[in-house]
Amino acid sequence: MMQNKFPENFLWGGATAANQCEGAWNEDGKGMSVADCSTYKPKVDPKDYVAQNGISSDDIEKAMKSDDISLYGKRHGVDFYHRYKEDLDLFAEMGFKVLRVSIAWTRIFPNGIEEKPNEKGLQYYESLFIEMKKRNIEPLVTLHHYEMPLYLSNNYDGWYQRAVVDLFVKFCKVVFKRYKNLVKYWLTFNEIDSVFRHPFTTIGLVTDRYPKEKLEEIIYQSLHHQFVASSLATKYLREIIPGAQMGCMLTRTLTYPENCDPKNCMLALKDNRENYFYADVQVFGEYPKFIKNQWDKKGINVKFESGDEEILKLYTVDFVSFSYYMSFVSSIDAERKEKVNGNIATGVKNPYLDVTEWNWQVDPMGLHYSLIDMYDRYRKPLFIVENGLGSRDKLEEDGSIQDDYRIEYFRQHIQAIADAIEDGVEVMGYTPWGCLDLVSMSTCQISKRYGFIYVDADDLGYGTYNRIKKKSFYWYKNVIETNGVEL
């Protein structure tokens, strides 16, 4: 068997998000974000999409009046805000070359509209990036990772109002200038394709405030504003930090046809094209014709300001990053088929794949497939910035966590990356999701654990928060040391 050949400069590391790990939700001048309204949902059926992700105006009003951090799990996170040096030491021990983090907009501009940034917020991330550099870890920074200021959701209709573009660009300029000597890899919007799956989390849109028949148009308009903001952020990054790189970020929801019935093949083709649309705009700098045809057919009117199309065309991204957790199946008989879900998406169950406790299908070959397909489409470097297995880890009496199931998951997926590289795909790096345990996005659980590092806290936020290395910690350390040769 041929040894894996990863590039010498391959960026091995891990991925986090401020709202899921930092905690300190109201410290040092931080404002309230949409994430601070997310509640712990211990008994939600994994298939119940609405229960996991729906949020109403009443829910927001209750959240604004509450100081509870047990119900609102992202408010406590895993205390990365205070423990980041300890965590960075552990990441450095594993040999991380890169760490994906996000900057919480509300730490810099608490409501999003302030004239001057919050200095304590700027200092926090400056210290974080300096400490990363001391440990030879490159920051990969997401600018907008489900952390929109709640004030903008309540007073600007989230991303629906055009004024939010300027407010976001102002935020970007501030952080580019402050961290120009510390950060060279950036991402604009996390999983920008999730606007329809969970509009409050992604674009700050509270759906009960608008007529149902107008929602699709409102969401597309908000998305357009994010596309323009992404291009403008890319423009100013190049002006302020020459040589820095900007990436887009997509949820790769790879879809197979159920069988070789041409109708199923066509359905899968269209489902994949819908998924790619969001990256297409940021890579090619224009909307695909089929989307505009859909708008015409449905009577959807998305307003473009003068110069928008030129902005999209001029300032496209340097690389394409994506999350990959599972694949799906398209079927013309979907209504009668068993369903699975994963990462807030649903599809027909694939009988050839295993599923996790949370009903996510495990498909390492799908990562190989996706890498080839995306590289053939975009011809830009690819970066896998989320991939991982959520599971209930057991702390043994001797203090160890024997997570061989996680090791096997990563072994298969890293091999899939190696296979894609062998097939000519240019892959920049790999940052598994939740390199330490953190609060899950939809149900605000800690018990759904992703990390190589165990955090001693329960779903309600009680515990010592001590960090404990899992068996997978040592395994991944060896993978990095051998540059992917030893799996």
Automatic annotation (TrEMBL):
<keyword id="KW-0326">Glycosidase</keyword>
<dbReference type="GO" id="GO:0005829">
    <property type="term" value="C:cytosol"/>
</dbReference>
<comment type="similarity">
    <text>Belongs to the glycosyl hydrolase 1 family.</text>
</comment>
<dbReference type="InterPro" id="IPR018120">
    <property type="entry name" value="Glyco_hydro_1_AS"/>
</dbReference>
<dbReference type="Pfam" id="PF00232">
    <property type="entry name" value="Glyco_hydro_1"/>
</dbReference>
<dbReference type="InterPro" id="IPR001360">
    <property type="entry name" value="Glyco_hydro_1"/>
</dbReference>
<dbReference type="GO" id="GO:0008422">
    <property type="term" value="F:beta-glucosidase activity"/>
</dbReference>
<feature type="active site" description="Nucleophile">
    <location>
        <position position="386"/>
    </location>
</feature>
<protein>
    <submittedName>
        <fullName>Aryl-phospho-beta-D-glucosidase BglH</fullName>
    </submittedName>
</protein>
<keyword id="KW-0378">Hydrolase</keyword>
<dbReference type="InterPro" id="IPR033132">
    <property type="entry name" value="GH_1_N_CS"/>
</dbReference>
<dbReference type="GO" id="GO:0016052">
    <property type="term" value="P:carbohydrate catabolic process"/>
</dbReference>
<dbReference type="InterPro" id="IPR017853">
    <property type="entry name" value="GH"/>
</dbReference>
